[in-house]
Amino acid sequence: MKSKTTTLFSASALALCAAMIFTSNSNAAPKDTLDAADVKFVKSESAAGTAELKLAELGVQKAGRADVKAFAEMLVTDHTQANKELAGLASTKGVEVSAVISPKHAEEFQKLEKATKADFDKEFLSDMISDHKKCVSKFEEAAKDSKDSDVKGWAEKMLPTLKAHLAKAEELAAK
To answer: Per residue in 32-59, pLDDT tens?
Structure first.
């Protein structure tokens, strides 16, 4: 009798868990509720943000100059927060983002990882200038043209920080 009761209880518990899982999935946002351009922006900037974070973490480890290291630390803080916000936005809009770094950014990371201490700061700042110029341009476009008000608002919110990163990288590179 005990084994029948245990089996019945286990089956009931399993059925309840399955029902809870299916119910929670039905409350998730529908897949890609954004238009194609907004989905592309969210996905590409999520990947770029992840890459920038990895590059900045490398900058914290390898920077030779104290001001470059401080800049890298600021990037880690800002991009960590921005990545969390974008992940939340993507989730609410039903957009799946990847944590995988693009081959271009992986190549950039490997190049910086192999750079000598003497060359690292110059190469790191050059990459940050190039990456942030592209980023600012994409965010300006999204802030102007995005069809979704949340995506548009997030892009507008991030622009001053990204422009400040670009200005700081250019300032440090000029030293």
So the answer is: 578 899 999 999 999 999 999 999 999 9
